[in-house]
User: Fold these one by one.
Assistant:
Number 1:
Amino acid sequence: MAAESDSDGLDKGTPLRRGWTTGACATAATKSALGALLGDGFADPVTITLPGGQTPAFALCHEQTGDGFAAAGIIKDAGDDPDVTHGATIISTVRLLPPGQGIRFTAGEGVGKVTKPGLPLAVGEPAINPVPRQMMTEVIGELCGAHGRPADVEVTISVPGGEALAAKTWNPRLGIIGGLSILGTTGIVVPYSCSAWIHSIHRGIDVARAIGLDHVVGSTGDASERAARALLGLPDEAFIDMGDFVGGMLKYLRAKPVRQVTIAGGFGKLSKLAEGAMDLHSGRSQVNIEALAHLMTELGAAPETLAEARSCETAAQVLALARAHKIALANRVAELAGHRADAILGKGHLPVQLLITDRQGKIVGRNF
């Protein structure tokens, strides 16, 4: 999943505490460091204005000045979100450049660089996303303007330990090498937001298209992805960790099409897709045991087998029963799920391939 959520989300029960994106932390650190470099001292706490107008204040955990530079650091607080960058230190080191150089962003320790096309940054650029760059550009312009000097500044963002943290994110698959991305569009982390995952799905598709791939594979988890890799033999960039968000992937592919789409997942999740569910999370869609039993009847199940299927409590139990009676239930589910996916994508593509695995990752059904 992406390193941080950055959009409105809902949670059941007690409201969860929101936090701040790496981009917001980098902006606050840049403002404090540049203020010190220009002779104002380190602002601590330092207040910034987010794109939505909010004005959070950040405490510093690091201050440093040296020959021609100043650096400030902020510990990221992701609120109650299970964010891999929660507790990481975001450091901004600023230097004044000769007149006419403008603002330059560079990647320090633990911040990645872009190595593949398709992202909103050029290949070779530090993985500091456009909105954080704009936020930092604005605070630099304000401070430099207040001191009567042009905004010619080099900003180096670093995250100690960020390379290890990045291994837990989508960055390696997206071709962001060497560390984390500095992210955020609102500056606010919303706990358990779905939008961050869907955003990462979109960027994965963008990268695949940009390098010329015409076949992408969305998988619900590691086991189904391994099965699809072994069967299809496609490059790493073809594989999208869509999780439960099959609808988010398909709707983006409708707008940004490729020639062939494969969906790989467990029997239970893809039986929900066959019923029309576009979000396969257990809290937002349920397996229809009765529908699975009805399919078994269509495939020739005896009345006593139908009764046994209806008494099952899980999709896995229904699948085991069907396999014991040599009923090709998983293939039928794959066929129906493929029709649902085709309807979302619309015309102009090959029929969507469906690949169904059991809990051990063994392929038990397919429509191709």
Number 2:
Amino acid sequence: MLKLLACLFMLLDHIGFYFYDVLPPFPAMLLRTVGRLAFPIFAWYIARGFGRTRSLFKYFLRMGAFAVVSEVIIRFANNLAGYHLPGTNVLVTFSLAIVMLAGYQMARYSWRDLVAGLRPVAAADGTLPVKPVSRFNVRVNIGGIELDPRIGVPLGIVMILLSIIAALWLKPDYGVYGLLTVLFFHLAIDRQDETDWERRIWLLLVPLNIVYMIYRIITDPGITAWAVVQLFSLLSIPLCLKHIKEKRPPAWARYGFYVFYPIHILLLVLLHRLMTGV
């Protein structure tokens, strides 16, 4: 249900974007404002999906494949509409976010893959003496990552940095802000009691969005209004928390978004051309 709502918000956002020259200014702005709710919900699903997936590599490959296919379709649609937008689509953001989360997990938890030492205690009075032996080393995996920290920590940091560099280079929708949104959702719920999720999510995402707003205003004063409008995305947090107990959707529902995303953009562009004749 939540993902269907996110798709609806995304549809409204893109109607406001592609039909800005057909709609009056206020309805177009309203549609785009409501559309701000879509991205955090999808970011929430990526963060939760990362913790649930049985194969992180397959998760990344699947997201990457849909990102490539979507890029071809969306570029074709934007060319039809006469838009030559820089950057790439939001599935590229989510693909890079998976890399960032994997790097974070590796950097944070590989050091917990330790070796514990066991040594026999001295015999108690009245028992047979124990022959002195060397200590027994036992591998204790607390973090769930079986990797030497001397490799895991630097490798994890490199993965995080590469995901950020790739986002700056490829310029996907929401960019580094999008990566951090997924990461902060993950930080809020990773190995945390469910009753503490809400407090941690607000604590992390509110400052992130305020900093992002200030950054956009400073770097491009011409989009001050849009920078402020982005704060409306925080209203999606209660929706995410309300659906914590939501059952995992069937495969068709999980993958339906990846098909809906590029196709609805293409259909909107075709409908716009049909209505305007251009």
Number 3:
Amino acid sequence: MIDMLPTGATIGILGGGQLGRMLAVAAARLGLRTHVFDPAANPPAGDVAHATTTAPYEDETALRTFGATVDVITFEFENIPTAALDVLETCAPVRPGRNALRVSQDRLTEKAFLADLGLRTAPFAAVDDEVDLAEAAAEIGLPAILKTRRFGYDGKGQARIMAAEDADQAFADMAGAPAILEGFVDFSHEVSVIGARSAAGDVACYDPGENEHAGGILRTTTVPARLTGAQRTDAVLVAAQILNKLDYIGVMGVELFVTDAGLLVNEIAPRVHNSGHWTQQGCSVDQFEQHIRAVAGWPLGDGTRYADVAMENLIGEDVYRLPDLAAESGASIHLYGKSEVRAGRKMGHVNRVTGGTRST
């Protein structure tokens, strides 16, 4: 058991993107302060945090100075260098812990972890060279997807292999990085569960949301998802099993494929997640406040869904629709304060309440 942080305490956030920004806003609502650490100047979270440190993760002096100002440390993304965590752990507790990061930072480690839990995933095999790729393709079959084991997100670091002649180019696309080959999964749709676990071991999961992607980037999440009652229960139980096995503290996103044979785990994200943004308009306590509560040692809040919600990401030039969105009845706009519009860049999101039914 850990002590509950008092109001006025400071939470350190590694990463100053939009997730860090929304975590800082949630913390402020609870009377908690935030200090953001980010290598980039003027990160989105810097607009709303109480303090910002701009320094590379390799700057040990900056890390220690940052660590001395905070009571607990959390993060908005999982690819934090191990050496930085080695330094920060001597300054303040890091929540969620190192094991969750270790598992999620490497796709092969993650898949093996899930398989060891008895959870179903896509077939997979490690690929370190072209011989491995040929053997993996023969074992798993084609089509398949070759992915870098580390540092991939929003469709980056991936290459589809539809036929044997695609293998050489796919391997070249990995640029020498260790990779994993994953077999295609015949699924009807993808859903995700946003789950939370407190320091006391209490677990609370939000209703599963249904996701649609385009170009490897999440476009929409809709709740309720198309699931039977049994599938909904299974999805929540899978998330709870993962949270408990990792002795997790905080919010996690668990993505699942819905197949005729049951649910398959696609991946886990040890942080607040894009597919959980709907909770801002659908629940009394959204995913950001839930995460702050957990890492601060507070009891988890009530995440019961009281509304049906459709979340739409505003990507790149979508943000130019702002005048129309601002005039749209029922549209709740969340912009991230990013000044430069780029193709594929998440500029904000919109939540639309589509119904007022409470989940059961």
Number 4:
Amino acid sequence: MKAFGMSEKGPVRDMNEDSFGYEMVGQCLCMAVADGVGGEACGEIASRIAVDSAVEMLKDTLPFVKDREALPAYLKTVFNKVNVKILKDCLENRERMGMCTTLTLAIMKGTELTIAHIGDTRGYLLHGSELIKLTEDHNEAGRLIKQGKITEDEAKHHPGKNRLFKVLGENQYLNPDIYSYNISYGDLVFLCSDGLYASMNGEEFKACAAERNNLESICSKLIAKALDGQSRDNITVTIGRAEPAVEL
């Protein structure tokens, strides 16, 4: 498995509220991207807590998950433990009350992909020449897409795209969306914040990923394209490439 990630503040925001991370845990590639909610207190702290604590939990406990069928329940536990960490941080630092964040996790093992997701950070799969959106946005625009009332392109300019109805940092039990996919060796899995995907179409996205063996180059091209598309948000992307495990 190979992975790479990049993040860019962008031309408008004063700080970068996005966070990302990736780690090999045994034969599993674990990736995470979080986007602190703009306009709320300390979104950049919430996103960093989410990514760092999620990756640490995966490193410590994922090796004890023995089969794929156990992953959904396990990942729900991870999300809720991360949520508790954010809430505890708010209690210990009252100036951070109200901070919240999206979080999308991907676990790749061979040709198996599992994604856990809350918010509007997206997962994509590039399989051959087909770019497939793997997650649903937990915002009002995403809800309208699901109902067939607006298109993906219309959602990019819909006022509801900024109104999230599921985030981490809420004082309640979380039920992240869990997706399981069978993928192929050579496929690319992307996790990205809305500052990236909202600034380009699918064909532009695929064109940036033409050189599939160079993940750093793909990340650079995607961020450059988002900036060319006049992204007004932080821009983050993490990429994993599905490859056979190497026996040592």
